[in-house]
Design a protein that fits this description.
29% helix; 336 residues; oxidoreductase activity; Dehydrogenase; ADH-like_N; single chain; ADH-like_C; Zn_alcohol_dh
């Protein structure tokens, strides 16, 4: 079978591999769509933590059941998406239901080879039924679930004033699910085209293009109160540190981004505001179900999100182009 591998930073290739065989508790999935994520672009550019090369990329996956063991809840041909976080089920985090931050977590396409290939075997518990959805939609569940998880972590409520910093796919996902909770949502970014997408397609309440005077503009726009909740989805250490100043007194700061290195903040300001600081990693089955329910209810503009696409053989030449801001990508899908 064919697989898309990042051999080293800056080099992608199509390689031939033996098709996998299912083991105990596993199902075989014929992959049909792979969403290309910021993580994949970071792998290509050589700045993704927790990764060793070469690596078959791909963790935003949809497909069809090709083979399932006797007694499985799945049958051949079922449309599914995949929860790509392979958790142990026995560590303290897993026992508390926090499988997204399992001590022994392995993520497909990061810690082990991923799903940008024709077939993959995964534990049955990581396969999510996607009945009623198309393959494109099912492939977008995972990145949307990351945004939904961060918003769930934040505790956003109707009338919460939420700022999402960074209008990439994860930030857009956070904005969608903050709006779904009835929050007043502002999105900040340097990219005017993405801000227009958030305003025109997602329907956020306010968009603000980041500039050197952004702190003063936010202060004026909020009568000095700033935000109840700030969600960072920039992937920029500088932006993540700057975001502390956007959190109002008694507010919450959620870091969806992960970067190499340390993040620092001013301790007196942090304590004066009694800021709640939350990390948000991956997603859980609950978040996947939240996204699936929203999709089935027509509350996610999936057709608009899927902005670019191409075949598996084209992917080594397309992904470098898709990774550039001027390409205007919201979500690119590889069709298999």
């Amino acid at each position: 079978m064919k697989a898309l591998r990042c051999d080293e930073p800056g080099k992608l290739s199509i390689v031939e591999r033996e098709p996998p065989r299912i083991g105990p508790g596993e199902v075989l999935v014929r992959i049909r769509r792979v969403g290309i994520c910021g993580t994949d672009y970071h792998i290509f550019h050589g700045n993704q933590p927790y990764l060793e090369y070469p690596r078959v990329i791909g963790h935003e996956l949809s497909g069809e059941i090709a083979e399932a063991p006797k007694g499985s809840a799945f049958k051949s041909g079922d449309i599914v998406c995949i929860e790509p976080y392979l958790y142990c089920g026995t560590c303290r985090a897993c026992r508390q239901g926090k499988t997204n931050c399992c001590r022994n977590l392995q993520v497909l396409g990061v810690h082990r080879d991923g799903g940008a290939c024709e077939y993959i075997t995964v534990p049955e518990r990581n396969v999510v039924p996607a009945a009623g959805l198309g393959l494109d939609e099912a492939a977008m569940v995972e990145f949307l679930a990351i945004g939904a998880h961060g918003i769930r972590r934040s505790g956003a409520q109707p009338a919460s004033r939420v700022a999402v910093v960074g209008a990439g796919p994860i930030g857009i996902a956070a904005a969608i699910f903050a709006k779904a909770r009835g929050a007043e949502v502002s999105v900040l970014d340097m990219n005017a085209r993405r801000l227009a997408f958030c305003s025109d397609v997602i329907g956020v309440d306010h968009v603000l293009e980041v500039s050197p005077d952004i702190d003063a503009r936010l202060k004026a726009a909020t009568d000095g109160d700033f935000f109840d909740i700030v969600v960072d989805a920039t992937g920029s250490p500088r932006a993540m540190m700057q975001g502390f100043s956007y959190v109002g007194h008694g507010g919450t700061y959620v870091l969806l981004s992960i970067v190499r290195g340390d993040i620092t903040f001013n301790d007196p300001e942090f304590h004066k505001r009694e800021t709640s600081l939350l990390g948000s990693r991956n997603a859980t089955r609950q978040d996947f179900e939240t996204v699936l329910d929203a999709m089935r209810a027509g509350k996610v503009p999936t057709a608009a999100l899927a902005s670019h696409r191409g075949g598996l053989d084209e992917a080594p030449s397309l992904i470098p182009t898709w990774s550039m801001p001027e390409a205007g990508v919201i979500k690119a899908l590889v069709e298999i």
